[in-house]
Amino acid sequence: MPSALPDGEPVPADGTLPASALDGAADRPLGFYLHVPYCATRCGYCDFNTYTATELRSSGGVLASRDNYADTLADEVRHARKVLGDDPREVRTVFVGGGTPTLLAARDLVRMLEAVRSEFGLAPDAEITTEANPESVDPAYLAELREGGFNRISFGMQSARQHVLKVLDRQHTPGRPEACVAEARAAGFDHVNLDLIYGTPGESDDDWRASLSAAIGAGPDHVSAYALIVEEGTGLARRIRRGEVAPTDDDEHADRYLIADTMLAEAGYHWYEVSNWATTEAGRCLHNELYWRGADWWGAGPGAHSHVGGVRWWNVKHPGAYAAALADSRSPGAGRELLTPEDRRVERILLELRLADGCPLALLHPAGLAAARQALTDGLLAEAPFAEGRAVLTLRGRLLADAVVRDLVD
To answer: Which residue, of 136, 137, 186, 346, has the fewest CB within 10 Å?
Structure first.
């Protein structure tokens, strides 16, 4: 089941932000994340805030229905307009995620986008992305999305091997994600991503190479490759605990990452974040870069998280409770926190160090700077950027990114 929300102070009923949250807002890009919490089935490794039809119940007298979800989410976009007041920024990125957004009709996703366009306006070069399940789209669906303004799409591929997909409880068949790339290109999508997962129990190096080869051969301009993290409370965690499947160890994860970086680099993909590669700068996911660079985004939908000017908040998780709050003209926010300058410094190091251009050494305290010098000696940070005042991970450093970060934030 979905993981728990963090603790925090209550969100005001009208969602009002502290006046300081919009100080300097004109200098920061604004994005929207639109969460669709529905899935046809629950994957064994997933702890996202998603629900199958049998898991949903009504709450507060409001039915958590896919049929009216676009209208409910549009209500939150209008709520965002009230909270942000006369903020003049046009929206730079919109990312529809889930769950499986493409379980909704294409017209519903377009209506959600139209709510953002109507209330805030979209920048002329706005990046508009949706995630998609390969089995839930066809050429007509993709054409309707493209006509409605979407210009980037991300397909969940995970693996090209059937036995690996089976362990992950993925429903699509091998070969379908690659076909989707061609269909998306034919529909006119400018940018296409394939998401891969490595380290699934039972996956071999050859399985992983086959998945990478299939993804590269499909011709997307962006590939994401994430190490499988087995979260407590998931079906996969229970299977491992019962001894039904064996977990993948850290050395195997490292080997798979090296395989990915080598194969993707040879095929013309350049890493720009530890888990993300693109063929061109234009192919990068601008929306995710908002997160990594601490910009502003409004997360609409059950359980969605937002950040504006050092204020972070998160919505109630259940779709019924979410719909009930909006129907009652209340903020769906469940809690929030006001980040201190130190919080924001630490987060900048945590996130920016994962990027290809790294983070400024000026962010580091003396102990962190000493750790950075040791990381340089150990070959975890690149020499040339360090001499110019930036901490940039080497390939070996990317394998140990979490450990490097822990040292640098001291």
So the answer is: 186
